[in-house]
Structure of Aldo/keto reductase:
Amino acid sequence: MITRQLGTTGPTVSALGLGAMGMSDFYGPADRGESIATIHAAMEAGVTLIDTGDFYGIGHNELLIREALQGKPRDKMVISVKFGALRDPAGGWNGYDASPAAMKNALAHSLNRLGTDHIDIYRPARLDPKVPIEETIGAMAEMVKAGYVRHIGLSEVGADTIRRAHAVHPISDLQIEYSLISRNPEHEILPTLRELGIGVTAYGVLSRGLISGHWSKTRDAAPDFRSHSPRFQGGNLDANLALVEKLRQVAARKGVTVAQIAIAWVAAQGTDIVPLVGARKRDRLAEALGALDLTLTPADLAEIEAAVPKGAAAGDRYNAQGMVMLDSERR
């Protein structure tokens, strides 16, 4: 397995990480046995980074990871956890809290659910507009000093917030959506990260399955959160799937799948970037891992750019309410 370091101060991890969210939430029912088998298959393939959030399945995801890692060497896995989103018993959303007290409470519960004495990378899932980022990171730095957290990460924040957070404590990496059709980080965020020596864990590299090559128009009414996503609706879906067909032609000429070329494109944007793949099944994981064997030449990259030009995506990546929550999208 190829490895990459997350920034100048972060851990060294596999060049591909596993995002576990879909095993517990947002994409409809998942098979518990297959989910655990997929985590095991990832580990056997050399994947060392697994990403979760304490609000994925309202704790279910952390408990699933605990079960999957039972009996495995703890120091072989880098566990990344997001916190801050508030849920209610019905699964609804009750806002966001990244205050120091809330963070310490969330951390205590995550440590218990995961059955571990430390979390490798701990990060607020979003910027809390009620709490200065300096207060959140300062309290997290206390948890690093106490040994409960090894590294501090960020998620979906903009350049100014990144600088303010990094001034309080070194940041290992920013988790942000980055794909062929989600390229806003290139404007200001990626240059800022590279200036400061902060890595990237890129999620949504297949845009929630939209550019995986496996999505079709007949699935646009999927009974999960994608049914509310602008990119999966009406004419936007048609336009985006047309882009996928152009990408499919490029992939066919390389003898690979659409998903593999999309993942390889993200990985080719810099050795400081680690793509996260949300595989819920072993066959999808195997396909994603195949992207690591794909080398894209400058000619390949130019051909991909021509097929899916920057800014070509139709629709925002979240609905209006979700976009408001993204500090990373503020201009």
Observations:
- The CA atoms of residues 88 and 94 lie 7 Å apart.
- The domain at 3-209+259-295 is CATH 3.20.20.100 (TIM Barrel).
- The chain has a mean pLDDT of 92.
